[in-house]
Amino acid sequence: MDEVVGEVTVPLKPAGDDSSPLIRLDIKYPVPLRVAVAGRTQVGQLNEWADAGVYLLLDRPREDGTWTCYVGKSAAPRGVKGRLGNHLQDSSKPNWYRAVAVCAAGDGWDEAEVAWLEGHLHGYLSGASRVSLSNTQAPSPGRLSRIRQMPLVHVEEVLNGVLALIGHAVEGGNIARRPPSPRRAKTESPSRRMKGKSSVLNQMVETGFVPAGTRIFSTYQKWPGEGRIRGDGRIETSRRTFDSLSKAGNAITGGSVNGWRFWAVGSPTGDTLATLRDRFQGGESTT
Prior knowledge:
The N and C termini lie far apart (51 Å). The chain is globular. By secondary structure, it is α+β, with helices and mostly antiparallel strands. Residues 1-17 and 173-198 have low confidence and may be disordered. It has 10 helices and 13 strands.
């Protein structure tokens, strides 16, 4: 069965089918983008993606719907296409079977913009319920003005839809908890495992970047709510205490949300915690 996305028809195949066709999308809204979904043998056909951009390397989805990916960027000659070609020979990343490449339509992105976008997407996916990231280090978003960030944040929305169509949904309910790897099981305390994906928030609280007791508010008018960030990095609302921003948001909406973008500091129109996280990882101050 095919899925229609705007003016583009996307042929759908099972996620494990290596015969899945090369998908090219010209996105006009919310921002003009060129998106491609390519298998390993199709990377050489991405001639229009030899520009600066970002990409995801996808491992096959697991039976419970969870999946692993690597977030990368390239602003070098030959752009994203060239970088993906290098990854075909990269023995440290042998398991990816599909890549999602994203470049700007029109004037294109510069090095600062793709660096910020890489860090932003890594931070976004690190808070998603279905996703594990294989990056050995979190990429720094660098420094980029708020005005230049504004069109880039919409890339996340486009990727959400594309990933869902090819069997890599970012969020989802009733997902079985993944067991920790043997290495983590030996070195991580139960309290640390409980915090899981909130480790960045813990660092923000521990360093005083976001003080303990900070009040947070839902950014969604349809689902109003508020809470506060405790000193242990957990989220306290009028209902109960939650281990992560996303779980606290899920309790309000009854569905699945990305907590980093669901919660804002100080008021519903304040800076989202995703914005503050990007500043924190980029070495900026809160002032």
